[in-house]
Amino acid sequence: MDTPEKNQIGTPISKFEDSPVFNYINSLSPIKPVKSIHVTQTFNPLNFASLPSVFTSPHVNSHKESRFLKRKTYLDGSKPEFSSGIGNKICTNEGIGMDGAQLFVNSAELQETFDPEVSLGEASVQASTEHSKFVIELPCTLKYDCGSPDCDPPPLCGTETGYVSDLVGKSALLVQNDQEASKKGSSEDEMHLSEMCQTGQKIEGMESGWESLISDVSDLLIFTSPTNSEAFKELIEKSMDPMTRFSTSLMSQLQQIDINDVQTMQIVDPTGSSEQHEINNPSAATGEASELQEIEQTKDNTADNLNKGMSSNTSEQMNSGVATFIPYASKAVSNLYRGMRRRCLDFEMVGARRKNLGDASDLSSSTLDEKIACYDKRLVPIKPSGDSSRCILPGIGLHLNALATNSKDHKNVKHESLSSGQQLYLPSSTASVNSPTNSQEPLRISLTSVSSSERDTELAENGISHVEDASQGSAYLVSDEFNQNSPKKKRRRLEHAGESESCKRCNCKKSKCLKLYCECFAAGVYCIEPCSCQECFNKPIHEDTVLATRKQIESRNPLAFAPKVIRSSESVTEIGDESSKTPASARHKRGCNCKKSNCLKKYCECYQGGVGCSIGCRCEGCKNAFGRKDEAAPMGIEADQEEETDACENSVMDKDLQKSDNQNSEEQNPTSTLPTTPLRLSRPALPLPFSSNCKPPRSSFLTVGSSSGLYTSQKFGKPNIIRSLPKIERHSQTVPEDEMPEILRGNTSPNTGIKSASPNRKRVSPPHSGFGSSPSHRSGRKLILQSIPSFPSLTPKH
DNA sequence: GAGTTTGAAACT
DNA sequence: CAGTTTCAAACTC
């Protein structure tokens, strides 16, 4: 039991076949051990399908679903704060989904309909039986999970072990009946189970074993498609991250189980790259080799043996095969997610995804979209076709999607990585798919380094809490419906994570969240639990309504969903390059109309956005710390601003003002005129004020291209991080990413510190930039650019 | 947490 | 386009 598996791991599948046992089995059962992809796929679906039924709490499911959606769209994940856990799952799912996205969709059906007999190979047959068992037992496990989403490996293991024991028992029966053929299956199952348990424990206690398992599975899946080793690694990492995040959720467990099965199955499948084989083989080989041993043991000790022996063996196997991957994942995972993926973009996610995916991978994208639609909305009937869907939310979704897909640029990742490794993930993943070679390494590095550090911190801080957060986050995403079910978790998350950071919520009472009054709607994101809105229609369920409303609004004002803060047109035009670098130029699209706040409070959109007032503003007594209207001209640093305008008005001057003034005085700047101007310097400071407040920028960012930025940014911060970027682009300040998006600007301005405030990201600017085209500049920019287009796209359909 | 202030969004 | 109303965030207590 103990070691043989390990050794075997390395052995190729061929050995199996050669083994006498194998031959014997073949002779006995009509079914031939075919390792076909199909089988694996079927399993995956099964897993998913089974899960829902199993889960006592809908949240879990919802989370998963949401994550899927998000993930794809985001890819980067940036947002991971809340949903971290979920995100991981999604990743894994995605991994599977990528290969067999379709599988997911149909999984439920497949599972149920699945006839063992029908199954192609032994594995499939066994798997089916196993699944059924799982389904039965899962509920128990799920319950546990639900109760303590935290990773708690021990509990999970315990449950699993129980499960395993059951499986074993069943397997034994099967063996008797089917004899060897069944044996394999049982042994494999055991293996999987034990592996899961062990992996969970071994892998940094923090991370759940599930994750590792999942990661492995995902890896396998991934492998099938992408050949490049690097890409492979990235993929793995991605999957890993998500996994880690979730560690806790039952879903993960279930998935893992499924995954395990899948892995074995996949292993069989040759389609994958050589790497896959290696990995797979080990498991398979171990499974077989161990089978005999295990079978015997199982008879006697079943449960115990499985737990002990399997755990050790399996873990090793896992490690040996997958281990290399895991590290990445584990590191990255923790970091990634805090953030938030969130709902943001969910809307458009679908549409955007399609587009984006189209680039990267049509197949996956299409399937993903469907999935997403289902999950996102929770079943909201989004159209798979996507065209329509796309149109619907082009804005946000596109942005996000674009970002995700585009994120390819690894470079971007690095930028982001500074703040958070998470972002890297998404991009990397996408990147890996698209163009793994270049960026991958860099990404990895950044990820690992960053993620590890972050993770550590997080772990230290949050510890178990992460899990919860993740789960919650997922819940958020999904769930409106679910929210009610498990509001506690959500609340917790919010509190812990800091609501502000992760996401804002709206409090609409009369607008039904279908007007721009609603921050969520304005940002292009669906309302989620944290929202205390009433009669909210801004949910996936009402997607049609939301889209229709959006269209109407856009028809009225095409830029309604565009970021309010924009860079100067000049800069925008140049977007492509760094040339524009002038972050400072950012300005509020329409200008404010403040009369009493002196543009020193968030009532002022300019101020909220972290940008100075410009000529276009009709404000009275402007004292905008970021730049007075009067000053629009160039001010340098002087802080006079305050004085100038009217000191009079000042009653308003708040502490904030003072602070901001001090910090920002520089920025004040210019306003419209300046596109380039100096604001930058000051900007950095500007953001701070917001940050302090912190609310997370709502979605606004998200909506636009910036959204992508947001995500990333959020990731970083997780909770804290983001600061509140105001709706506008302020996130840019805090988060470089945002800036990135800004496009060019950014590239961010050279000033390191800058981030500046330039909110540009959102800039309306030139939509033109095609997603694909985006040049290499820094990832950030690219993203931005891509995102930008989205705006226009908002109304795409037409 | 309730109430007030504020300015954008929506409406006329 | 201007004026008014509606709305929800921001803010204050």
TrEMBL record:
Chain intervals for the UniProt region annotation (Disordered): 271-293, 411-442, 657-692, 728-798
Keyword annotations from UniProtKB, A to Z: Nucleus
Location, primary (coarse class): nucleus
Biased composition annotated in UniProt, kind: Low complexity: 670-692, 766-777
Cell compartments where the protein resides: Nucleus
Name of the protein in question: CRC domain-containing protein
Annotated PANTHER family: PROTEIN TESMIN/TSO1-LIKE CXC 2, PROTEIN TESMIN_TSO1-LIKE CXC 3-RELATED
Phylogenetic classification of the source organism: Eukaryota, Viridiplantae, Streptophyta, Embryophyta, Tracheophyta
GO cellular component: nucleus
Native organism: Carya illinoinensis (Pecan)
UniProt record similarity statement: Belongs to the lin-54 family.
This protein's record includes keyword S-adenosyl-L-methionine: no
Stretches with biased composition (Polar residues): 271-284, 418-442, 660-669, 746-759, 787-798
GO molecular function: DNA-binding transcription factor activity
Ranges where the CRC domain occurs: 502-627
